[in-house]
Design brief:
Structural class: mainly alpha
Largest sheet: none
Order of helices and strands: HHHHHHHHHHHHHHHHH
Strand content: under 5%
Distance between the termini: 14 Å
CATH class: Mainly Alpha
GO molecular function: transmembrane transporter activity
Protein name: MFS transporter
Pfam families: MFS_1 (PF07690)
Number of helices: 17
Keywords: Membrane, Transmembrane, Transmembrane helix
Shape: globular
Number of strands: 0
Mean pLDDT: 85
């Protein structure tokens, strides 16, 4: 193991890096958050079953998760700017291909694999790796909260905009316009150029050795396992909630605004999470978030569905939506340092996306088999309680294998 000199100060002002990164996060995550609005028009126009559409979204989430560690590792070693630029191009190409997809099999490729890989390479995970490189450790949770809040702002903006595009131009042209917006990521990525460097006291390990040592750390394993549940909740609600509300007698516009309300309240939730993460044990905060999600889902199922209850549930879930991200990324940075943040957060995010795959796919299967989403809602409650328990034993301290021994 060797050390490298301390990370160089960025030539680009920190404020500009954060602004550009936040806009990229907003565009990328906002687009992803709007895909649930296409459930009904796409399935009705192409004759797809809810399970087939759910499978396309599930493949997207899985492709996103599998590609994320590699995207993070590439950004760590070769630079976040070029990584995000390539990701923006792939992401736009996948969404554009979705607009001209004729059947389920091609949808698995366009909406699933290509779009999923593009999301991973242009994701807020890569943006946070860039932020982690240029801010001190004690401020990382707060800055990660800003990036996550920006992602939520994108969801708040893109949900009504996406629905407006669909209503005015049809789902196909809506996707074309969204693909054009995604191309803005390419020029914005120039502000985030640079790569991670080891600092004094940190080990400089090859990719597989770093991954092996990280997985040997019990607290990291628990964090990765618990993050599965976050993906399950988010993907199921994001993709199936608009259709669920229509099934309950509400309009598609209510469904789109429900997703927007989640994004709006998640801005506050993410900022609050990032702030509290610098002052209280992150694992305790994560446990509280997952427990609160289980309670929110339970209460939503107990009351009759109306516009008021839909928006109230969206507000509650919005506060808890991505509030796990700055805390999870903060713990990964604390465990292993900024040098491996992109890759090792990417591994945790892979678990998140496996959960997303299961949540989206299972939602479609259960609906097609039973005509209802009830079983998946109940499973979401149980998983929330389980994740709350898993996070409690996590130790908030550096992993010993990632610090150099002094003579």
């Amino acid at each position: 193991m060797t050390t490298i000199t301390a990370t160089r100060q960025p030539a680009i002002p920190l404020a500009l890096i954060i602004i550009a990164g936040c806009i990229i996060a907003a565009i990328g995550f906002g687009t992803r958050g709007a895909f649930g609005l296409f459930t009904l028009p796409v399935t009705e126009d192409l004759g797809l079953t809810r399970e087939q559409w759910g499978m396309a979204m599930a493949i997207q989430n899985l492709a996103w998760g599998i590609a994320q560690p590699f995207a993070g590792g590439f950004a760590d070693r070769y630079g976040t700017g070029r990584t995000l630029a390539v990701g923006g191009l792939i992401y736009a190409a996948g969404v554009l291909w979705m607009a001209f997809t004729p059947n389920a099999e091609i949808m698995y490729l366009s909406a699933g694999i290509v779009t999923g890989v593009g999301i991973a390479i242009a994701s807020f995970g890569v943006v946070m790796a860039a932020f982690g490189r240029v801010v001190p450790p004690e401020k990382r949770s707060f800055v990660f909260g800003i990036a996550t809040a920006a992602s939520s702002a994108g969801q708040f903006i893109f949900a009504p905009v996406g629905q407006g595009f669909i209503s005015a131009f049809g789902w196909q042209m809506a996707l074309v316009y969204i693909a054009c917006l995604l191309l803005l990521i390419v020029p914005l990525s120039a502000a985030l150029r640079g790569r991670a460097e080891s600092v004094a006291g940190e080990a400089d390990l090859p990719f597989m050795e770093a991954l092996s040592k990280a997985w040997g750390y019990r607290s990291y394993r628990l964090l990765v396992i618990g993050f599965f549940v976050c993906g399950f909740h988010l993907a199921f609600i994001n993709v199936h909630m608009p259709a669920y509300l229509v099934q309950c007698g509400l309009t598609p516009e209510v469904g789109s605004w429900t997703i927007a309300v989640i994004g709006l309240f998640n801005i506050a939730g993410s900022l609050l999470s990032g702030y509290l993460g610098g002052r209280f044990p992150k694992q305790i905060l994560l446990s509280a978030i997952y427990f609160s999600r289980a309670v929110a889902i339970g209460l939503f199922l107990l009351v009759p569905v109306s516009e008021f209850t839909a928006y109230a549930f969206a507000a509650a879930m919005g506060l808890l939506w991505l509030s796990t991200v700055p805390l999870t990324a903060g713990l990964v940075g604390l465990f292993f340092g900024a040098r491996y943040l992109g890759m090792l957060y990417g591994i945790a995010f892979l678990s998140h996306q496996v959960g997303s795959f299961v949540g989206v796919w299972l939602g479609g299967v259960v609906y097609d088999q039973t005509g209802s989403y009830s079983l998946v809602w109940y499973l979401g409650i149980l998983l929330g309680l389980a994740s709350a328990a898993v996070h409690l034993p996590i130790n908030e301290r550096s992993a010993p294998n990632f610090t150099l021994k002094t003579a």
